[in-house]
């Protein structure tokens, strides 16, 4: 069994396990060599290439878990959304939801038909992943995926999303019901293929007030968590969400992953979960190694070796990050004894 999996259950481990959001990504030269000129959407859907960058990142960094290389959004294609990736912009949907009638056209089909390639990606990774290293699957949460298909791309204020949510509550519920069903099927496909934990990314939910989260979002997230409960550890992650921690935990994940804006120990004590994940500011990795060590030491000292701490960043590695700085962090966490 992996130290990561033990930490998920709050079991003492010989050292603090660590893995990193976006540990396979654009900051790594090996990633670019594998991707080459392959378009992003095709890259995400290619089980051989996706497995290769997943395994490369784990091997190069020596982290305690690999996370399946994929993206949150391609699972929306079989639901009827036209997705492409624009340089300098990111993911863009050509046919976002604009009206109540648009919700009716959203399809839910079995994951084996719509995104069956994910199963092969997982199997390819597991074929070469060391047995002591856990494999994490993931998916976007209902609110975050709804935001993308309503905005058509990333947003600063989520005007389209909030306007639709407030103005058309019945259509909003129908949209999130469909997304929740599709996400559950997608994650179950990953679990059946062999992932040993799952992280649910609610990237944009921090934009909501607590009452709005509990009214418009939490019931759907809870339905998803109940469907997935008991199979593998479920981690729930968001950013800018310090006001939502209690409400998010109440939806039923095994534990939360925290961003860098909150005190990890105080939040963990308050939530009372067996494990917690986080929460170094990812931009610390752009600073000098001694700064990286100092910032990591502060987090590690705050929990004083408490069982159940999984070290991670409070968001993803940024493209400007030196690979050596990431390795410095991993080595420091593994070897730190307080």
Question: Can you describe what's shown?
Answer:
- The chain contains 15 helices and nine strands.
- It is an alpha/beta fold.
- The strands form three sheets. It has a five-stranded parallel β-sheet with strand order 1-4-5-6-7. The protein has a two-stranded antiparallel sheet with strand order 2-3.
- Helix 12 links the parallel strand 6 and strand 7.
- The longest helix is centred in the middle third of the chain and has 25 residues, at 169-193.
- It is globular and about 60 Å long.
- The model has no long low-confidence stretch (mean pLDDT 97).
Please give a handful of descriptors for the protein shown.
single chain; 338 residues; alpha/beta; five-stranded parallel sheet; two-stranded antiparallel ribbon; 9 strands
Structural class: alpha/beta
Total helical segments: 15
Low-confidence stretches: none
**Beta-strand segment tally:** 9
Bin the helical content. 40-55%
Shape: globular
What is the typical, i.e. mean, pLDDT? Answer: 97
Strand arrangement within the widest β-sheet reads 1-4-5-6-7
Distance between the termini: 25 Å
Order of helices and strands: HHHHEEEHHHEHHHEHEHEHEHEH
Task: Report the sheet with the most strands, covering strand number, pairing sense and barrel closure.
Answer: 5 strands, parallel
How big is the Rg?
19 Å
């Amino acid at each position: 069994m992996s130290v990561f999996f033990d930490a998920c259950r709050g079991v003492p481990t010989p050292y603090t396990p660590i893995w990193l959001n976006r540990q396979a990504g654009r900051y790594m030269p090996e990633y670019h060599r594998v991707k080459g000129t392959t378009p992003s959407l095709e890259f995400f859907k290619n089980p051989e290439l996706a497995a290769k960058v997943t395994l490369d990142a784990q091997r190069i960094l020596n982290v305690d878990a690999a996370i399946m290389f994929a993206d949150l959004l391609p699972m929306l294609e079989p639901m009827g959304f036209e997705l492409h990736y624009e340089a300098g912009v990111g993911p863009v949907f050509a046919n976002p939801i604009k009206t109540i009638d648009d919700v009716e056209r959203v399809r839910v089909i079995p994951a084996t038909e719509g995104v069956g390639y994910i199963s092969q990606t997982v199997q390819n990774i597991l074929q070469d992943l060391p047995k002591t290293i856990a494999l994490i699957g993931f998916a976007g949460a209902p609110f975050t995926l709804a935001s993308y298909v309503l905005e058509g791309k990333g947003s600063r204020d989520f005007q389209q999303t909030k306007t639709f949510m407030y103005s058309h509550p019945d259509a909003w519920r129908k949209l999130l019901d469909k997304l929740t069903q599709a996400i559950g099927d997608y994650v179950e496909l990953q679990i059946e293929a062999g992932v040993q934990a799952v992280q649910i990314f609610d990237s944009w939910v921090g934009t909501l007030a607590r009452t709005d989260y509990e009214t418009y979002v939490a019931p759907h997230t809870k339905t998803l968590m109940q469907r997935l409960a008991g199979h593998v550890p479920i981690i729930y992650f968001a950013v800018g969400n310090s006001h939502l921690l209690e409400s998010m935990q109440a939806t039923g994940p095994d534990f939360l992953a925290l961003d860098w804006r909150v005190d990890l120990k105080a939040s963990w004590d308050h939530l009372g979960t067996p494990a917690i994940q986080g929460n170094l500011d990812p931009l610390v990795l752009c600073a000098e190694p001694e700064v990286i060590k100092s910032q990591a030491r502060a987090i590690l000292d705050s929990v004083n070796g408490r069982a159940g701490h999984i070290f991670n960043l409070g968001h993803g590695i940024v493209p400007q990050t030196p690979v050596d700085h990431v390795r410095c962090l991993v080595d420091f966490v593994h070897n730190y004894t307080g």
